[in-house]
Design goal:
This protein has nine helices and nine strands. With about 250 residues, the protein is α+β, with helices and mostly antiparallel strands. It has two domains: about 70 residues, Winged helix-like DNA-binding domain superfamily/Winged helix DNA-binding domain (Arc Repressor Mutant, subunit A), CATH 1.10.10; about 170 residues, Beta-Lactamase, CATH 3.30.450. The strands form two sheets. The chain has a six-stranded antiparallel sheet, with helices on both faces. The protein has a three-stranded antiparallel sheet with strand order 1-3-2. A hairpin with a 2-residue loop joins strand 4 and strand 5. The longest helix has 18 residues. It starts with a helix and ends with a helix. The mean pLDDT is about 90. This is DNA-binding IclR family transcriptional regulator.
């Protein structure tokens, strides 16, 4: 690799670190905080943010910066699952109306699920999930539904990363997770009972492509003392099967 290529790579990594420093609820960040979160020198932060502001990817807000409108516009164009989200929207709305609970659409990326769409129900708990947000796949029903219908190498990657405890009943034993996934493959429905958080329960079903692999999953989530997931699971399964057939 030549010096120019190394410099380009370092610059790209630094820019990615700056964007990655913004988390949920971070509207404006100052140079000192960006330097702390990224590990970059404050002088580099000032220089790079100046360039990004010039191109509309960041915007000045007082003494700090916030993510720019141009970045949002690019993100909208880059949505690789945009067609999936649009196709799923009526099915999610129907599930929400039928159950009055929160409905999720998620895909797997690495060892985490990424939420493409969320339709929140009026009777549902205030869940930590958000559109564009991530959660460990092994601790969610949507994640387990996808893992159950993914190549073995995908599960191996998840297990190699370690099954971190997220909620009071998160599965942390590889053998137990494997047994659950085998049952999910047979039944077509995955359950979560306080694995992602206290009091939360969920039923999910995968969206399968023509080869039988999971492209995504949809779920219904609610309070464990108010929702009987076995009763709502047929609705989730039916919607997932119908949506799978409707996808291109």
């Amino acid at each position: 690799m030549c010096a120019a290529e190394r410099d380009d790579g370092m610059t790209a990594a630094r820019i990615a670190a700056l964007f990655g420093a913004f988390g949920p609820g971070d509207h404006v960040l100052g140079a000192s905080e960006l330097a702390r979160r990224t590990g970059l020198p404050k002088s580099s932060v000032h220089r790079l943010t100046g360039h990004l502001v010039t191109h509309g990817l960041l915007e000045r807000d007082g003494t700090g910066v916030r993510l720019g409108l141009r970045l949002f516009e690019i993100g909208q164009l880059a949505g690789r699952e945009r067609g999936l989200t649009e196709a799923a929207r009526p099915y999610l709305a129907d599930l929400r109306e039928a159950t009055r609970n929160t409905v999720h659409l998620a895909v797997l990326e690495g060892i985490e699920v990424v939420y493409l769409d969320i339709v929140r129900g009026p009777d549902a708990p205030a869940l930590p999930s958000r559109i564009g947000g991530r959660f460990p796949a092994h601790a969610t029903a949507v994640g387990k539904a996808i893992l159950a219908h993914s190549p073995a190498s995908v599960l191996d990657t998840v297990l190699a990363a370690g099954l971190t405890r997220i909620g009071p009943r998160t599965i942390t034993a590889p053998g137990l997770l494997r047994r659950q996934l085998a049952r999910i493959r047979d039944e077509g429905v995955a359950y979560e009972r306080e694995e992602s958080g206290v009091g939360v329960t969920c039923a999910a079903s995968p969206l399968l492509d023509a080869t039988g692999r999971a492209r995504a999953a949809i779920s219904i989530s609610g309070w464990s003392n108010r929702v009987r997931v076995e009763r709502v699971s047929p609705a989730v399964r039916t919607a997932a099967l119908a949506l799978s057939r409707a996808l291109p």
